[in-house]
């Protein structure tokens, strides 16, 4: 299958620092980026060549930015800008597949690209476009506790995915334009904390986060206590972990909520380390049902865990005094590159074992 953007983002910075398998290109991150570009992935267009405001594209562009900043390869920046220009008109309007009235957090993931390009170019059209996303967040529906709904059509539901889709942009916007806005920083902190409190496993031995919750308790899958979904899905938790490390990096150290995010990160990191399969070193798709028939080692969530935990150690967000976290992430990385990377005859790489997601809540986990 084509290389998913989840894998590229996870490799684009932290993993490029590790030792690579002999006979492979010098950097998996470069190989992944060049392969995605050759296939025209993440370029702001859908399969039919029409503009598409899509979170997958925003993810890839984030990874390309990290790689551009590390390598100075201008082609990555050029590709980011070309992709943004496919969804933003000269007047700053977003492509019409985006509808603010849908109140979906997913397309907001392209917002960081627009903030970045505005910073680099000063072009007003990018500001006009990302202000549309900020306007959406200003009026986005929330639970009574203040959690953003994942989408308007998912009544009172908060998902781990939405933290990554909406709050990385929210944090970068506030840092850029409202850095002293204590109310906004408190709101961002609350998004993470509400999700953590409402989805944390309080029974079982993982101590991780369920995919989402229904504050209204009306969904058929909602638990009787906090309305959470029944299983821990690796990719949803991977999105939450990436959001944690990226937003902690964005937040000024003077913001009180940064300590809250660090505490959550520090609580989850060793539990994710310990949840890896003891032999393979990577993670099951449905983490609460390891070894069950139909379950399998899933690549996108595994890549996001490796990215998040290596970044957290590198930047000092978590202490790894015995080296066990880095050791575990290197073991996972070695499995990933040995088992999921596919070298194609045209010189590109492909990637295996990424879950195919359905368009309803909890996706694969409800099939178990």
Automatic annotation (TrEMBL):
<feature type="signal peptide">
    <location>
        <begin position="1"/>
        <end position="23"/>
    </location>
</feature>
<keyword id="KW-0732">Signal</keyword>
<dbReference type="InterPro" id="IPR052043">
    <property type="entry name" value="PolySaccharide_Degr_Enz"/>
</dbReference>
<protein>
    <recommendedName>
        <fullName>Glycoside hydrolase family 105 protein</fullName>
    </recommendedName>
</protein>
<dbReference type="InterPro" id="IPR012341">
    <property type="entry name" value="6hp_glycosidase-like_sf"/>
</dbReference>
<dbReference type="InterPro" id="IPR008928">
    <property type="entry name" value="6-hairpin_glycosidase_sf"/>
</dbReference>
<dbReference type="Pfam" id="PF07470">
    <property type="entry name" value="Glyco_hydro_88"/>
</dbReference>
<dbReference type="InterPro" id="IPR010905">
    <property type="entry name" value="Glyco_hydro_88"/>
</dbReference>
<keyword id="KW-0378">Hydrolase</keyword>
């Amino acid at each position: 299958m084509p290389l998913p953007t989840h894998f590229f983002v996870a490799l684009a910075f932290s993993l490029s620092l590790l030792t690579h398998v002999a006979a492979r290109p010098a950097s998996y991150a470069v190989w992944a980026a060049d392969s995605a570009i050759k296939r025209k992935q993440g370029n702001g267009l859908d399969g039919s060549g029409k503009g598409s405001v899509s979170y997958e594209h925003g993810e890839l562009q984030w990874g390309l930015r990290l790689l551009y900043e590390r390598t100075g390869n201008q082609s990555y920046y050029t590709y980011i800008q070309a992709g943004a220009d496919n969804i933003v008109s000269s007047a700053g309007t977003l492509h019409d597949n985006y509808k603010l009235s849908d109140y979906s957090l997913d397309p907001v993931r392209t917002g960081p690209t627009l903030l970045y390009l505005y910073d680099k170019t000063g072009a007003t059209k990018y500001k006009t476009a990302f202000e549309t996303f900020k306007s959406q967040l200003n009026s986005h529906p929330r639970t009574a506790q203040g959690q953003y709904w994942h989408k308007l059509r998912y009544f009172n539901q908060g998902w781990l995915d939405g933290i990554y889709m909406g709050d990385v942009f929210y944090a970068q916007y506030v840092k850029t334009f409202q850095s002293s806005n204590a109310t906004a920083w408190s709101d961002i902190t609350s998004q993470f904390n509400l999700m953590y409190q409402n989805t944390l496993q309080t029974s079982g031995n993982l101590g991780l986060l369920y995919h989402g919750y229904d504050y209204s308790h009306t969904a058929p899958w909602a638990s009787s206590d906090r309305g959470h979904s029944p299983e821990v899905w690796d990719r949803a938790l991977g999105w939450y972990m990436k959001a944690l490390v990226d937003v902690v990096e964005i937040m000024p150290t003077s913001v009180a909520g940064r300590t809250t995010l660090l505490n959550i990160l520090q609580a989850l990191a060793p539990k994710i380390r310990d949840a890896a399969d003891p032999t393979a070193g990577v993670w099951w798709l449905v983490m609460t049902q390891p070894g069950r028939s139909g379950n399998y080692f899933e690549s996108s969530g595994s890549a996001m865990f490796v990215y998040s935990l290596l970044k957290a150690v590198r930047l000092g967000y978590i202490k790894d005094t015995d080296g066990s976290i880095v050791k575990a992430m290197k073991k996972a990385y070695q499995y990933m590159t040995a088992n999921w990377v596919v070298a194609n005859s045209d010189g590109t790489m492909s990637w295996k074992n990424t879950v195919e997601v359905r368009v309803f809540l909890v996706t694969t986990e409800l099939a178990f």
